[in-house]
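Students often ask what a 'structure token' actually looks like in practice. Rather than answer in the abstract, let us consider DUF2147 domain-containing protein, a protein of 164 residues. Its sequence is given first.
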Amino acid sequence: MKVNILKKIGLMIFVGMGYLAHVHAASPLEGYWKSVDDRTGEDLSIIEVKKMPDGTYGGVILHRFAPPGGVVLTHCTKCPEPYKNKPLVGMQILSGFVEDPSKPNSFIHGKLLEPKSGKIFEGKGVLISDGRRFRLRGYVGVSILGRTHVWLKVNDPKAEINKK
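Now compare that with the structural description of the same chain:
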């Protein structure tokens, strides 16, 4: 009898731990991403994406790369308030993204700030290539009127920064 009770308790603990691990597992969207200019192919930024306390996803710039032969953009000079003339490193450029309940690995209802132009776009995205790429679509009004960027997942942001 005692053995059966101990087995049941052990099983409940095992199942409970599995449930907690599933509940607290990080989303594949969370982590470090390298943004790349869709026109030139040049590296732009390293961004850290996290799940926010309200359940949405947000992304903050950790590093800006200098363009070849150019000067790194350090402040959001063309951005609207409250971003205007603020440093880009530490700035949240991705906000409000939520998982699309009807499409796995898809995210909707987000906002994207493009530091170079200072424009804020509505956004959606999908994880592709086994979660190693995040295809973001920024648009105004309807998604057909927009641009797509692909971010690349980065395991070690310091190594990416030191490559340059």
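One point worth highlighting: The radius of gyration is 20 Å. Ask yourself how you might have guessed this from the sequence alone, and why that guess would often be unreliable.
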